[in-house]
Amino acid sequence: MHHTGTGLRTLTVVRQDVSLGAGRDLEFGLELLARARSGGLGPTLRLYRPAPTVAFGQRDTRLPGFEAAAQACRDNGFEPLVRRAGGRAAAYHQGTLVVDHIEPDADAVAGSKARFGYFGELFAQALRIVGVQAAVGEIPGEYCPGEFSVHGTDPADSSRRVKLVGTAQRVVSGGWLFSSVIVVEDSAPIRKVLTDSYAALGLDWDPATAGAANDLVPGLEVDAVEQALLQTYAGDATLETASFSSLGA
Predict the structure, then answer these.
(1) Residue 212 in contact with residue 185, Cβ under 8 Å?
(2) Dihedral sign of CA atoms 216, 51, 103, 5 in order
(3) Which of 142, 158, 150, 128 has its CA nearest to residue 224?
(4) Which of 31, 73, 92, 123 could be stapled to 54 by a disulfide with Cβ–Cβ 3.0 to 4.6 Å?
(5) Is this model's pTM higher than 0.70 or not?
(6) Vertex 30 angle, CA 175 and 97, to 5°
(7) What are the pLDDT digits (tens) for 122-135?
(8) What percent of the chain has pLDDT over 70?
(9) CB neighbourhood size of 75 (10 A)
(10) What is the pLDDT of residue 5?
(11) How large is the greatest C-alpha to C-alpha distance in the chain, in angstroms?
């Protein structure tokens, strides 16, 4: 991973067993980034299953339908938030796994583009371990489109592809936070809230692109994907575990 600017030797894995609440979960990642840039936190991987959330991009807030979109989220039981990274609205809930990778890095900006490609392939590899036909690349009509999204292909219908992982990055002087959401279970509520909120925003997309890994591999659960992810990470780093309380949330 040295070529991406990550330079991992040891990575501390922290599992957050309970959501702190949608807003607090998002802010805590930024707090960890602030600690890393100041030398108070080493390379850390934070894993958690979030409360139902729709994270809007900054551009979304400038659209005339934003308030209606936010209300549509509440009506569907999702809390609307605005993230500091770019992109469009993305939805997640307890059937997803959020992966926050935080690193101190004196030259954080230099590796920012390479990081997207590296982590996209890392997540695709983890999904392939659990049987998903996963690949990196934007698919036509996907929500929150991105060049390095990870999608899965339906083994019974190669023309059907669904977005499974969305990624975002926050880079500051002295560190970076790479945050990813893997949709594993229960895609219907995500598809519904995205349909309603994108309609309010006036954005075109194809709801068929919103899915979960267990739509493609029946019975797949978040825990299995988490283990596959850690297995993949272990190819690049020595993993150590720490309690969530050690982060002082």
Answers:
(1) yes
(2) positive
(3) 128
(4) 73
(5) yes
(6) 105
(7) 999 999 999 999 99
(8) 97
(9) 11
(10) 46
(11) 50
Question: What interhelical angle do 222-233 and 112-129 show, nearest 10?
Answer: 120
Average pLDDT over residues 95-120: 95
- The distance of Cα 156 from the centroid of its chain, to the nearest Å, equals 26
Core vs surface per residue 126-148: b (16+ CB within 10 A) or e: bbeebbbbbbbeebeebbbbbeb
pLDDT in tens, 145-169: 989 999 999 999 999 999 999 999 9
pLDDT computed for residue 44 by the predictor: 97
For 190-205, the three-class secondary structure string (H helix, E strand, C coil) is HHHHHHHHHHHHCCCC
Q: DSSP assignment, residue 210?
A: B
Residue type, 208: A
Select from 176, 166, 139 the least CA-distant residue to 53.
Answer: 166
Strands (E), the chain: 10-16, 44-48, 53-56, 79-82, 90-92, 96-105, 133-136, 150-154, 157-172, 174-183, 238-242
| Beta-bridge mates of residue 177 | 102, 170
The DSSP secondary structure of 110-142, one letter per residue, reads GGHHHHHHHHHHHHHHHHHHTT-EEEES--TT-
